[in-house]
């Protein structure tokens, strides 16, 4: 299938051509026809599968097919984080270059008063994080009662971040009859099911690259560590290897992320930390430095990394193993994208063994264990000695049998 087969407007096809997008990805091919038909969609797609364009293209097509001048927005796109909202905004901007579409982005980190002014221009599309948009609705800065389409991206992460009540409050201000599309990395779990029941009506359910499927383009390894110092030495060796061009190092808490970034900097490795305490300007500057290669290593928490528009990452390193298998899939999906190969390294101490078991159960496979020269665990060194033939003194050797 080509984008021509999807019956998209020439303006959209031209924009796709300029971006060198020739054929739709699996999630685009599966979802766009249903969305164009006006059906509700519940779609599961892993990171890096092209899901943003899967809902942006039909949303823009709706505005082309049914041009109307209204006093209120027509399309709402909700994202769990500022970074993902800006990533969606970037895709909308790229694909609507030949259109007169008005877009407003509403997130935390900026003046709420200024964002209220943006809404006075009556945008066609509002891209927002739930909390900030709910504040503006409460202040009557925006009226969502006349929406044609509501799209929720990364619904699973919204639920993990406790944003479900804000989303449901927003939906309560919208008149019935809007088309709804819910995208999630995984469709498993009662949270997403409950969310979908509240939002969707007779939805088409689509699952692409299920969340327990690891990418064939990502090589995954476990390196066992005896202690913190051993883990730090393994991290340094991996990052300094010639194959590591750029890396995201994941930590479970921001305090650990700060500590790891400081350690890498002490080893003369260009590294920076990314977590939720930074304002939007600082986060954008850090993202730019990493994307352009000024900084080699980004040390991040899951919340901070979610939605970051980053490509060409050669390594994902789990300094802390995540607590769940689907989060692991999210993390390693940062590498091996767009037909490139990638490497995922898991640094595992004894206290991480339960998390490793959960991940392998989720993957339905054991992750291969590897060793770095000179950095084996004490247990591995001991096992190696056991495998060697033991030297026996000549006087202790048994006599040769007589012929």
Q: Ends: how far apart?
A: 80 Å
**What about the largest sheet?**
7 strands, parallel
The topology string of helices and strands comes to HHEHEHEHEHEHHEHEEHEHEHEHEHEHH
Structural class: alpha/beta
CATH superfamily of the largest domain: P-loop containing nucleotide triphosphate hydrolases
Under CATH, the topology of the largest domain can be stated as Rossmann fold
The total strand number stands at 13
CATH architecture verdict of the largest domain: 3-Layer(aba) Sandwich
The level of helicity is 25-40%
Number of helices: 16
Low-confidence stretches: 387-403
Strand order of the largest sheet: 3-4-2-5-6-1-7
Please, how many domains?
Answer: 2
Write down the Rg: 25 Å
Residues in β-strands, percent: 15-25%
What does the overall shape look like?
elongated
- The average pLDDT score comes to 84
CATH class of the largest domain: Alpha Beta
């Amino acid at each position: 299938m080509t984008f021509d087969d999807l019956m998209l407007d020439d303006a959209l096809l031209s924009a796709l051509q300029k971006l060198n997008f020739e054929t739709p990805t699996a999630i685009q091919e599966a979802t766009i026809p249903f969305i164009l038909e006006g059906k509700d969609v519940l779609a599961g797609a892993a990171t890096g599968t092209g899901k943003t364009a899967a809902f942006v293209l039909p949303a823009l097509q709706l505005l082309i097919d049914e041009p109307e001048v209204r006093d209120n927005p027509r399309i709402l796109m909700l994202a769990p984080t500022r970074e993902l909202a800006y990533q969606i905004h970037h895709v909308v901007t790229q694909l609507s270059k030949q259109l007169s579409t008005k877009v407003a982005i509403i997130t935390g980190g900026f003046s709420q008063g200024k964002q209220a002014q943006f809404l006075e221009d009556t945008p066609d599309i509002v891209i927002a994080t739930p909390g900030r948009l709910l504040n503006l609705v409460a202040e009557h800065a925006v009226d969502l009662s006349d929406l044609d389409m509501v799209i929720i991206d990364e619904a699973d992460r919204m639920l993990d971040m406790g944003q479900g009540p804000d989303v449901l409050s927003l939906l309560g201000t919208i008149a019935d009859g809007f088309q709804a599309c819910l995208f999630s990395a995984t469709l498993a779990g009662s949270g997403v099911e409950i969310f979908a029941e509240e939002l969707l009506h007779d939805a088409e359910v689509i699952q692409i690259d299920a969340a327990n499927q690891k990418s064939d383009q990502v090589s995954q390894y476990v390196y066992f560590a005896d202690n913190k110092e051993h883990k730090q030495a393994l991290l340094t060796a991996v990052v300094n290897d010639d194959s590591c061009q750029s890396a995201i190092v994941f930590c479970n808490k921001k305090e650990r992320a700060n500590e790891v970034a400081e350690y890498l900097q002490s080893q003369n490795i260009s590294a920076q930390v990314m977590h939720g305490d930074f304002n939007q300007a600082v986060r954008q500057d850090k993202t730019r430095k990493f994307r352009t290669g000024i900084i080699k290593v980004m040390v991040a928490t899951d919340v901070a990394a979610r939605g970051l528009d980053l490509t060409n990452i050669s390594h994902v390193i789990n300094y802390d193993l995540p607590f769940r298998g689907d989060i692991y899939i999210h993390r390693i999906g940062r590498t091996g994208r767009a037909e490139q190969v990638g490497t995922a390294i898991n640094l595992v101490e004894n206290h991480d063994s339960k998390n490793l078991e959960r991940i392998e159960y989720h993957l339905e496979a054991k992750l291969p264990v590897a060793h770095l020269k000179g950095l084996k665990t004490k247990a591995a060194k001991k096992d190696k000695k056991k495998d060697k033939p033991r030297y026996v003194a000549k006087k202790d050797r048994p006599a040769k049998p007589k012929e």
